[in-house]
Structures are given as structure tokens and as C-alpha cells.
Amino acid sequence: MSFSASQIRKDFPIFERTVRGGKRLVYLDSGATSQKPISVIDAESDFYKLHNAAVHRGAHQLAEEATDAYEGARQIVADFLGAPGGADEIIFTKSATESLNLLAYAMGNAPIGNRFALKNGDRIVVTEMEHHANLVPWQQLCARTGADLAWFGVTDDGRLDLSNINEVITPNTKVVSLTHQSNVLGTINPLSEITTRAHEVGAIVVLDACQSVPHMAVNVETLGVDFLAFSGHKTLGPTGVGILWGRKDLLDELPPFLYGGSMVQSVDMTGATWAAVPQKFEAGVPNMAQAVGLGVALKYLTQLGMDNVSAHEHALTGYLLEKMSLISDLTVVGPTNNLSRGSAISFTLGNIHPHDVGQYLDSQGVAVRTGHHCAWPLAKRMQVPATTRASLYVYNDESDCDVLIDAIQGASKYFGGR
Predict the structure, then answer these.
(1) Is 210 in the active site?
(2) Which residues, 6 or more positions from 322, have their beta carbon under 8 angstroms from its beta carbon?
């Protein structure tokens, strides 16, 4: 396999700069947001410079060009995910958070008789390792509808506990929503058993794929889920654009949650009817330039080859885990082996507060994330107030891992191992 992270870094202008007094930037925070290749930056800029107009609205050449670019990006996303219903199954949002909230609010709008209508006694199932974006919206939906919230627990080694799956996913379960890959633990969750049980009881399965779509080949049909959300900015794309994929028949029945221009079929002074999907869920002038940039980002990843991306990250994660195992006061929070895990590695360092570790690493040019990573319940379950997280991506290599390890050892000495 020909895959050179050092060569890939040349496509990313940000790596031409230095930080903290001339140090090389070692960016290990792609789990929060990825860096952008020049092709993505140029695509977004070129849209504004050459084609800027409101899509689906104008009767002039710029509007036609903008619409073609926007809808072309939708097709790229559909192809990237293997959407069986094609581009009509792709909804552009501003973020994965909005995508998940769209589902929760739309279900809350569902009238009696609609398959998505929830009532007292129905159940929504999540997991204890969810990002707040895939927990709080479902909590709020339960509060509005009277449904109850249940969840799968997490084992001490950071895996989902499915030993009581039939007691968690009960016959009254309507929604099962879970992360594909934990943003804290790196755990890649086993979906087959969960989707099989969920569909047995007639529940829909929602997948938060923010940490998987950028890092591995994802085919929605193969996964067997019903809805999937991911964010552009973690996928080498711009900020301000997210994706919701859903099965066409389900999207047809799901009511909208935002109202206004572009999402209507007809309007009079007493009512309105809705446009077909995906326009039904895209009220207002959309994030056009960002969608175009996301399309270029997915093309970039396709050219790299997602199997190559995941193989590179798997090898690099194994390398870093092995190096970390040699530091006596470092504890990995989550799977310590490289089986069914991604490239986000959270850790603690003795009694040193993770924020102090992060600040020291930053002084050495190493960018990481510290805190609870928008997953407070998981932090409580793992009995840590916070962790330091290093997350790897296509532009990282063993030299970055070595700089991180040296900086961690430096932090341990600097703080006296306390």
C-alpha cells in the first residue's frame, strides 16, 4: 500500500506554519475537527468567487451553476455512503448535532398514526458512551412525549455491555440511537446484534457516525441502519455543514421540523403542503459553499481510498498504544488493544490534571483535546473527571506519535509525577 502521511501533509496549508516559538505543529485533535486540504479551501472560495447565487431559486446562469454544484455535492455524499435510494436520501444540515436534533424534533412533531409518533410507555434506547449530541435530544424528546429512556452500559475496558440486550431493547422500543465509534474511548461498536434486535421489535436505528465516516469505509446498506449522521468538519470538509442520511420511505413519512422557503410544495393563507425529500428538510437558503467543499473533501478521501485510510490509522494506533504502554504512570481510558477500536486515544497521566497535561503538550507544539469531550455520563462511568485525548488522522505518522510520547514524558517530569 502506498500511503505517505508526510506527502499528504503537503496538501494542507496549515502544516506550513509553526506554533509556540517555532515548533512544528503536531496536530492530534482531528476527533474535534480535521484540517482542510487546499482543494477544499479552494472549492469553497471558488464558489463564492465564481458561482455564488441562491440554489433552486434564480432563473439565471449563476443560479443554475450554484444549483448544479450543490446537487452535485449531494450525489457525491450519496455515493460515498452507498445510499441505496441515491441523492434523495441525503439531507444537508449545518452539523451532525443539527442532524440528530432534526430527527428528534421531527419525531416530536409526528401526528398520531404516524409511525414516528411517540407516546407514554414507548422507549428510546441509547448507550452510556454517547456524545451529548446523541443523548440530550433524546432526553428532551422523552420529556415531551412521555417515552422512557434506556441505555446500554459500558464495561470497565470501554466496550458496550450487550449481555441484557433483550431487556434493554424491549418490544415497546421505537428508537435505538448509538455512536458507531466513541469519540472518547475509540471503541467501534458491534452493530449487527443491535440492529437485528431493534428491527425485530420494529424500532428504527439511528447511527452517530461522526467518528467513523471520516476514518473507515461506511456503507449504510451494509450496516443495516435506518438513519445516519456525520459532520463535514471532521471529514476534511468545511465547518457549517452536516449530513443526515435516511431511508427514503422513512424520510417520506417523517414530518419536517423547520418551516419556510424551499421546503414547501404549496402555500395559502390557511395552510401548506411539503416538498418532496430532501427539500422537505432544507428550509431557507442552504449552506451551499460548505456543501460543495464537503463534496471535494469526500472526493479527496475517495482518492486516498477509505480502506487505505483505515489501515494507516489502525497501524498508527497500534504503534501509539504500544508506546503509551511503556509509560508507567499513563492509563489509557478505553480499549488498550487495537481490536475494534479507532484512532482516538484518551488517557490520564498519574495525578496530573488532564488540562495541565494538555497545556504542557501545547507548549511542545502538540495539539490535543482535554476535558470530558462532551460525554459527561461516560466520564463518570469511567471514574475520571476528564482525560487528555490524542486523535490521529491521515496526515499523522509515527514521527507525530514520537513527539507526543516525548512531550508526555516531559509533562510527567515537569509536574514531578504528582
Answers:
(1) no
(2) none
| Nearest-angstrom CA–CA distance, 298 and 217 | 11
Q: Whole-angstrom Cα distance, residue 409 to residue 417?
A: 10
- Judgement on whether residues 321 and 272 belong to the same structural domain of the protein: no
Q: How many domains does the chain have?
A: 2
Together in a domain, 260 and 336: no
Do 147 and 287 reside in the same domain of the chain?
yes
In one letter, which amino acid is 199?
H
Nearest-angstrom CA–CA distance, 117 and 148 = 14
Q: How confident is the model at residue 1 (pLDDT cuts 50, 70, 90)?
A: very low
Question: Average pLDDT of 390-402?
Answer: 98
The residue range of the domain holding 103 is 41-302
Regarding pTM above 0.85, the answer is: yes
End-to-end distance of the chain based on CA atoms, in angstroms?
44
Pairing of strands 173-179, 123-127: parallel
Residue 106 · residue 93 · CB < 8 Å = no
pLDDT of residue 417: 56
Residue-wise pLDDT for 313-338, tens only, equals 999 999 999 999 999 999 999 999 99
Q: Which residue has the cell 480502506?
A: 307
Which one of 142, 210, 374, 401 is the catalytic residue?
Answer: 374
Exposed / middle / buried, residue 413 (Cβ in 10 Å: 0-12, 13-18, 19+): exposed
Q: What contacts 412, CB < 8 A, 6 or more positions away? A: 327, 329, 349, 350, 352
